[in-house]
Every structure is written in structure tokens, then in C-alpha cells.
Write a structure and sequence with these properties.
This protein has four domains: 132 residues, no CATH class; 68 residues, no CATH class; 127 residues, Tetrahydropterin Synthase, Chain A (2-Layer Sandwich); 84 residues. A four-stranded mixed beta sheet has the order 2-1-3-6, with helices on one face. Strands 5-4-7 form a three-stranded antiparallel beta sheet. The chain is 57% helix and 17% strand. The protein is an alpha+beta fold and 480 residues long.
Length: 480
């Protein structure tokens, strides 16, 4: 509306100046106002104009000059002169001198060119705006902004488009410098996985997620917040251990992302989520800087704190269980600071290269070699002990088998005594002697003694009594 009013005032002022027959150079003032109102901010040798706008202006002015020349030819015809002389008041008022005729020729030429441009551009704006922006949910209710954006893009007079991706915000378009310095009106395209904090007049206005956002007047990006996980490589130098050995370099990888907070307070952004209160309270910084530097600083302090709890021998090399415990301790130490003060959650920590002094390496190597020698000697002793135990077991098995064989012989001899007949007295005597000899050996063998039953010892006693009395046939028969 302001542009329309200024244009009307400019046309009327120029007409009055020409009516008063003022010199033509005075037209430089309204011409300057016209140019500034159609989008050229200043005249300067360093001024840059979008090529599309330059082509459009050349075509528009050429068409206007052609149409103005036609109008001038009409106004300077004898018939028009005669009507003016005849006393047509309107023509006399508007065309009573040549300057006014030229003025109206130029003005009508510009007006006719503008009408032709509108007839061609307006349908184009509606079609393009629908094709470009209707895919976004935010298009509804912003059809006018979409139409203006499409026309501005065609003519090269827009402020460009702010695109947020990969954690960065960039302005695309010839007028982008104005958008980055002063803000909207303009367009913000945000890639999924980002939350953008907007400000106006130094105050946060809103937080928007992925998709299309129409920036209001003087609304600009204050901070881009990536919602996806990122990692920081932190190399801590000169880290002391509990046994006062200085580690030259200790490398860790810290994987972190924005803390989304309680689930009932989260704003879902596709596969990601964020908490507006946490972003405003903990994440936002006046300079719009990222928190990665803070994570690295906290990680440096946490590494020094956790490493100082252990001896070098525990840290180099690390067993699997100790490595898991160390990483968990380090993660908790970092989260203790980042979650509460920065709104950032460390999801994982990994250990990289550990560089220790040469003297410490030598001492560790000597200790490991000594430990290995002790373990090898211990293993050899255990092997010998196990070998002796195995041989003793084998010997015991053999003794038990021999005792069992002897037991069977005794049982057979005892059975023979019980079934002896009256004949073969000498054979019985020989058998008795063999039985006595065998049983006496078994009685003296501890391994066999435990296998002999009391009845067998009684049988041995009877045999000994019979032999001493030479009355082998007087043996009683025992039924066991």
C-alpha cells in the first residue's frame, strides 16, 4: 500500500512541476524514488544486480519506450493539436505544452507495459507457488507469501531462501545478504533432524523443525540445533595416573546429541525429538555458537579425573571387563556436567590411542615378562602334579585290579577246600600250602587287605590250624 501511495504522489508531483514549466532535470528526484521502491537499495559503483532483474528491466523499459513512442506520435498529431486549440478543457489541462505530452507518453507506456507484465506474471506466480510449496504442510494459510516468493524469484528481487542442512544455515539467492543481516520476510527450508531457533529484535520468537517456514519481518536465525548424534575426538595430553606416571596422550571419542528430556514433553521431528524448554534454557547461546567446544572441554577434564583413579598397569593394556567399566565411568563423568548445564547427552564413549613414555613402556615390559615367567613355571608345576596324580591313579587302578584277581583266586581256593574229598591227601596238602602263601601275601598288602572279608580271614586261620595238626581233612566246611 505504501508503494502505491508513493507512486501516486510521485506522478502528481511530476505533473505539477511540468505544468509549472519547471526544468526537466527535476524528474531525477521522482525517478530515483521509483527505482528505490522497486527493490534497488542504493546506487553505488559496487552495486550488484541479479541478472534476471537486469534482463527484466531492460525488456520492460524497451517495451515501455516503444509504447511511449506510439503514444507520443498520437499526442503530437495535428488532430490532437486541433482539439487542444478548439478548447477541450481536459486536453488543454493535460497537454497544454510539449513537456506534458512527453510525460504522458512515458507514463502511459509504463502503465501499458506493467499491465502486460501483470497479465503474464500473475498466472505464472500462482502455478509456480503451488508446485513449489504445496508439498509442505505449512503452505496452507500462506498462499500469498508463496505467490510473492515465486514472483520475486522470477524477477530476482527477493531476499533469497535460508536453507538449513548438515548443522549449517546458508542463504541462497542474490538478495541473500539482506536476509542474513536483517531477516525476513523470507523463506526458511529446514532439513529433518534440525531445530532452528528464530529471533527478532534480539528476542527468541519461536523454535521450528524440518520443512518450510515463512519468516516474518526482521525475523532471522538465532541458532541451528542439530538433533542427530555427532562425535568429538578429544586428545588429552600429560594425564597423570594413580601411580604418578604421566601418560603423554590419551585419545577418546565422545558421541553426543541434544537431550530430548521426558517423553511427554518432547516435540517429535520425524525420527528425532527435542524439548523446547531445554533448548531455550540450556542449549541456546546469545552468539548462536555450538556446544561442541563445551563437550570437548568437559571431556578433557573428565579424562583426567577418571584416569587418575587407576594405575598405569590397569590402563595399558585393558582387559575387556575393565575397558567396559572405564568407558562407563568416563561417560557418567561427562554426562554429569553436560546434561545439567548444556542440555547435551553423551550416548557413548570409546577409547582411542594411548601414548605412554618409553621408560614406562620398558618397566611394564619387564614386569610382564617376569609375570609370564612365573606363570609358565607355575603351569609346569601344575602339569607335573597332575601327571603324578594321573600316574598314581593308574597305579591304584592296577593294584585294585590285582587285588580283585587275588580275591577271586582266594575265593576259588576256599571253595575247593569246602569241596575236598577223601582221596588226594598230598594234592590237598600242596594246595593248602599255596593257599596259605597267597593269603599271607594279601594279608600283608594294605591295598588287598581292605578287599578281604572277615570270613576269608577265618578261613585263613582254619587252614593254618589244619596244616599245623597235619589233619587237612578235619577242616570244617563254612558256608558264606
Amino acid at each position: 500500500m505504501r508503494l502505491v501511495i508513493e507512486t501516486i504522489v510521485m506522478v502528481v508531483s511530476t505533473f505539477v512541476l511540468l505544468k509549472l514549466d519547471w526544468p526537466w532535470p527535476i524528474l531525477a528526484v521522482p525517478l530515483f524514488l521509483l527505482i528505490t521502491n522497486v527493490g534497488i537499495p542504493k546506487f553505488s559503483p559496487r552495486m550488484t544486480i541479479d541478472p534476471r532483474l537486469l534482463v527484466f528491466l531492460i525488456c520492460f523499459l524497451t517495451l515501455s519506450a516503444f509504447l511511449g513512442w506510439i503514444i507520443a506520435e498520437i499526442l503530437f498529431q495535428p488532430r490532437v493539436q486541433e482539439d487542444i486549440i478548439a478548447g477541450n478543457r481536459l486536453l488543454v489541462f493535460l497537454l497544454d505544452n510539449n513537456s506534458l505530452k512527453i510525460f504522458w507518453s512515458i507514463l502511459v507506456g509504463l502503465a501499458m507495459s506493467a499491465v502486460l507484465v501483470v497479465v503474464l506474471v500473475v498466472p505464472y506466480g500462482f502455478i509456480v507457488s503451488q508446485n513449489m510449496y504445496s508439498q509442505y504442510d505449512q503452505y496452507k494459510g500462506h498462499e500469498r507469501e508463496a505467490f510473492v516468493s515465486a514472483i520475486s524469484a522470477l524477477l530476482g528481487i527477493g531476499r533469497g531462501t535460508w536453507v538449513v542442512s548438515n548443522g549449517q544455515a546458508e542463504v541462497h539467492g542474490a538478495g541473500g545478504s539482506g536476509l542474513s543481516r536483517f531477516g525476513g520476510p523470507g523463506i526458511l527450508l529446514t532439513q529433518e533432524g534440525h531445530a532452528v531457533m528464530l529471533e527478532r529484535s534480539g528476542k527468541l520468537t519461536r523454535i521450528v523443525g524440518g520443512g518450510l517456514t515463512w519468516l516474518e519481518s526482521f525475523e532471522r536465525i538465532s541458532m541451528v540445533v542439530p538433533l542427530f548424534g555427532r562425535n568429538e575426538r578429544v586428545v588429552v595430553e600429560q594425564v597423570p595416573t594413580r601411580d604418578r606416571i604421566m601418560i603423554e596422550e590419551f585419545e577418546v571419542l565422545i558421541f553426543h546429541k541434544v537431550d530430548a528430556g521426558p517423553e511427554d514433553e518432547q516435540v517429535k521431528e520425524g525420527a528425532f525429538a527435542y524439548n523446547e524448554a531445554s533448548l531455550r534454557r540450556d542449549v541456546w547461546s546469545p552468539g548462536g555458537g555450538d556446544w561442541r567446544g563445551g563437550v570437548r572441554s568437559v571431556g578433557d577434564s573428565a579424562v583426567r579425573d577418571v584416569v587418575g583413579r587407576y594405575d598405569l598397569e590397569q590402563l595399558v593394556p585393558m582387559s575387556e571387563n575393565f575397558r567396559l567399566r572405564f568407558k562407563n565411568d568416563l561417560k557418567q563423568a561427562i554426562n554429569k556436567v553436560t546434561r545439567g548445564a548444556m542440555g547435551v547427552e553423551v550416548v557413548a564413549v570409546d577409547i582411542g590411542k594411548v601414548k605412554i613414555p618409553e621408560e614406562a613402556k620398558r618397566r611394564l615390559m619387564e614386569k610382564w615378562l617376569a609375570d609370564w615367567a612365573v606363570r609358565i613355571a607355575q603351569s609346569e608345576r601344575e602339569a607335573l602334579i597332575r601327571k603324578g596324580e594321573a600316574e598314581a591313579v593308574i597305579l591304584k587302578i592296577k593294584e585294585v585290579a590285582w587285588a580283585q584277581a587275588q580275591k577271586r583266586v582266594i575265593e576259588e581256593i576256599a571253595s575247593s577246600f569246602q569241596n575236598i574229598g577223601a582221596s588226594g591227601k598230598e594234592a590237598v596238602y600242596v594246595i593248602a600250602l599255596r593257599a596259605l602263601d597267597t593269603m599271607e601275601k594279601m594279608a600283608g598288602d594294605p591295598a588287598t587287605k581292605i578287599l578281604l572279608s572277615p570270613e576269608m580271614f577265618m578261613q585263613l586261620h582254619d587252614v593254618r590250624e589244619a596244616i599245623s595238626s597235619s589233619d587237612l581233612f578235619a577242616l570244617p566246611v563254612r558256608r558264606t
